[in-house]
Design brief:
Elements lengths: L3 E5 L6 H9 L17 E6 L3 H10 L3 E3 L2 E6 L26 E8 L14 H32 L3 H18 L14 H6 L7 E8 L9 H13 L2 E5 L1 H7 L4 H11 L5 H13 L1 E7 L3 E8 L4 H8 L1 H5 L1 E7 L1 H7 L2 H6 L4 E3 L10 E6 L2
Parallel strand pairs: 1-4, 1-5, 3-9, 5-6, 6-7
Antiparallel strand pairs: 2-4, 8-9, 10-11, 10-12
Helix pairs in contact: 1-7, 3-4
Amino acid sequence: MGFKCGIVGLPNVGKSTLFNALTQTANAQAANYPFCTIEPNVGDVAVPESRLDNIADIAGSAQRIPARMNFVDIAGLVRGASKGEGLGNQFLANIRETDAILYVLRCFEDEDITHVDGKIDPLADLETVQTELMLADLESLEKRRPNLEKKSKQNDKDAVQTLRLVDKAIEILSNGEPARVAEIDADDEKAWRMLQLLTAKKVLYVCNVDEASSGTGNAFSEKVVAHAKAEGSESVIISAQIESELALLDGEERNEYLETLGLSEPGLNRLIQAGYALLGLKTYFTAGPKEARAWTFQDGWTAPKCAGVIHTDFEKGFIRAETIAYADYVELGGEQPAKDAGKMRQEGKDYIVKDGDIMLFKFNV
């Protein structure tokens, strides 16, 4: 389990350049003209995790397997996309299955790269894209409503619940707000998710800045960061151009380049960290001679639920979890020293797994 993120934005904001950098591939054609992405590109990338390397070195693991995350790059949206303008509307279905939506916003000036609206205004760009997503949601809901109304009159309980949520969403969207502002009761959460509303998803704003602004941002990105804070979303400042150059360098060259730019880490790291924080994701580890591996889980999950990330049989037949905190594992030098020092704990079904735990699950099949 990682997380799947849909990348949206206007044409020529750097979406495909960022996608190429994130996935370190050239599968998405980055060019200076609208709709250069003509089909949704999907990239699977490793989650950077220094703790995994430390654990693998201590355990003498032959392999180290990081957690993965998924990016879906969607063709540039333009005003009227929900009604068929441009190409982006053809691919909206591809982001209905994502966990979050990443809005790439142009926060740089460049006379050689045209802007579809002729001016640089990231908040106006955001409004354009979000409006199209809201209109797409409204169209989807209004198509479903007649059938739900018919079933509701036949006392179909699921239909009654869904119709109530559909009407709630329509009201919010009609008032010009995204569906994510809705307050949903715990009993309705599953049915709400089943609506697969684009604007109900959590969002991460990516401020694509020029190289000189990569460390501190600029006046454009400041507006986006303030907007994100006001609505409780996450934002990250990245230069897609720098990230694309970093993707072509090896480890030592990459570090030297980052140092010359005054950056401590690639933008990808910051983006993933922001995404994990947004979605409440954490990491636990397994380690042995064959492999050390990172596993992603939802904050608040119990040990059996986390065991199920590896295999459903682990969750069904869960007995206990032998657990060592990351700090103890590193400080004491591995599993056996931690066990000898009394730092290996036997945790049961009610244990809430902590970020960085090194775990060995015992189970019956």
